[in-house]
Amino acid sequence: MDRKSYGILILLTSSLMVGAMVGTVCAQSQTFSIYAYDYYGNPASNAYITVYQGAYEVKHNYTDSDGRWQTELNLYTRYRVSASWRGQYGDWSGELDGSQSRISIYMR
Question: Which 3 state secondary structure label does DSSP give 23?
Answer without folding.
Answer: helix
